[in-house]
Every structure is written in structure tokens, then in C-alpha cells.
């Protein structure tokens, strides 16, 4: 009688570098990123997908990495907040966060930035939100629209006005 297999080999790209690792089927993408690959940008806040501190971009779409099993990330491209810039220059969203002082303790900031990048791409593609007036028209990036689309990312320091201002500034660039 053979033993059941509880691990799989996963190949994924994280911030431009390819990794092939063997993971236990119970390991989340967040734990793989932090514990195995040493990525420190995504944070473990609630571990229930409620705070957004672990938000990363997977193939360009925002995702809470604490709710995703690592085996589901086989073959994907993961971008953390650390992988958004060029090394020499901040990503426009990160630059706007800096200019608008859109952080206090900074714990949620990497997740906020990844979520904002994904959210701006959603708006650009015409995806409506709950507060969009016309579901067939291109969404207008109002204050209410930004707040609704970013509602999955919590800031314990309540830097929300500055976060909204930073997203508005980044959208104009």
C-alpha cells in the first residue's frame, strides 16, 4: 500500500525571479512567500482574508494570499509591493503613497499598494463596482468608488483620507 502524497512541486515567478519549490498542500501562498521565499512585503494580518495586508498581484489581479493555497499558484506570476518598482524608482502608486503620506505604521501599506494597483487596472478595464452608477459605462474614479474598491484593505491607523488622495494622484499620472 502506497503512502498518500501530501506535497507537490510548484513553479512560480515572484517579483521577476522564478522559483521551484516543494510545498505541503496545506501551505498558503502567503506562508510560501514569507517563510520559504523570504518575501517580506506581504504581511500576515488576520490570516482570514479580512484585512488585506497580504494582498499581492497574481497574474496582474489582486489576491489575498492568506486564503490561497500555494499549490494553486503553480505557473503564476506573483508581484508583491517590493516587486512593483524598478529598484531605482518607485512605482507611481507607491510614489503617490509617499507624497500623500498615506501610511502611519506602514504594516498595511504593501497590501494597500498592491490592491490600489490592481484596482486601478480594474477601473481602466471598465469593471464596475457596487457603487458604479452605470454598469455599462466606464467607471468614474470618485472618492466613493475608490473607497468601495479598496474596502477589503483595512488600515488600523485610519490613514484612509491620505490613501484615497494617493490613489487619486496615482490615477492622474
In brief:
The chain is α+β, with helices and mostly antiparallel strands and 173 residues long. It is 31% helix and 16% strand. α2 packs across α5.
Question: What are the main properties of this structure?
Answer:
alpha+beta, globular, five-stranded mixed β-sheet, about 170 residues, single chain, Ubiquitin-like (UB roll), DNA polymerase, domain 1, 2 domains
List the uncertain runs.
none
Number of helices: 5
Assigned CATH superfamily of the largest domain:
[2Fe-2S]-binding domain
Instruction: Please count the beta strands (DSSP E, at least 2 residues each).
Output: 5
Largest sheet, in brief, is: 5 strands, mixed
CATH class assignment of the largest domain:
Mainly Alpha
What layout of secondary structure does this protein have?
Elements: E1 7-14, E2 17-24, H1 29-36, E3 55-58, E4 61-64, E5 77-79, H2 92-99, H3 109-125, H4 143-149, H5 160-172
Parallel strand pairs: 1-5
Antiparallel strand pairs: 1-2, 3-4, 3-5
Could you walk me through the main structural features you see in this protein, from its secondary elements to its overall organization?
This protein has 173 residues and is α+β, with helices and mostly antiparallel strands. It folds into two domains: 7-79, Beta-grasp domain (Ubiquitin-like (UB roll)); 92-171, [2Fe-2S]-binding domain (DNA polymerase, domain 1, Orthogonal Bundle). Helix content is 31%, strand content 16%. It contains five helices and five strands, in the order E-E-H-E-E-E-H-H-H-H. The protein has helices spanning 29-36, 92-99, 109-125, 143-149, 160-172; strands at residues 7-14, 17-24, 55-58, 61-64, 77-79. It has a five-stranded mixed sheet, sandwiched between helices. Strand 1 (7-14) and strand 2 form a beta hairpin. Helix 2 packs across helix 5 (160-172). The longest helix is centred in the C-terminal third of the chain and has 17 residues, at 109-125. It is globular. The mean pLDDT is 95. One of its GO terms (molecular function) is metal ion binding. This is 2Fe-2S iron-sulfur cluster binding domain-containing protein.
Amino acid at each position: 500500500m502506497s503512502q498518500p502524497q501530501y506535497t507537490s512541486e510548484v513553479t512560480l515567478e515572484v517579483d521577476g525571479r522564478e522559483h521551484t519549490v516543494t510545498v505541503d498542500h496545506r501551505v498558503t501562498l502567503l506562508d510560501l512567500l514569507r517563510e520559504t521565499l523570504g518575501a517580506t512585503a506581504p504581511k500576515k494580518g488576520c490570516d482570514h482574508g479580512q484585512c488585506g495586508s497580504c494582498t499581492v498581484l497574481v497574474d496582474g489581479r489582486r489576491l489575498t494570499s492568506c486564503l490561497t493555497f500555494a499549490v494553486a499558484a503553480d505557473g503564476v506570476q506573483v508581484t508583491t509591493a517590493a516587486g512593483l518598482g524598478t529598484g531605482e524608482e518607485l512605482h507611481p502608486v507607491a510614489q503617490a503613497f509617499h507624497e500623500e503620506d498615506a501610511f502611519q505604521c506602514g504594516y498595511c501599506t504593501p497590501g494597500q499598494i498592491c490592491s490600489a494597483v490592481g484596482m486601478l487596472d480594474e477601473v481602466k478595464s471598465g469593471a464596475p463596482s457596487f457603487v458604479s452608477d452605470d454598469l455599462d459605462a466606464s467607471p468614474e474614479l470618485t472618492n466613493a468608488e475608490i473607497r468601495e474598491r479598496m474596502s477589503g484593505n483595512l488600515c488600523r491607523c485610519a490613514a484612509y483620507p491620505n490613501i484615497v488622495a494617493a490613489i487619486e494622484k496615482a490615477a492622474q499620472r
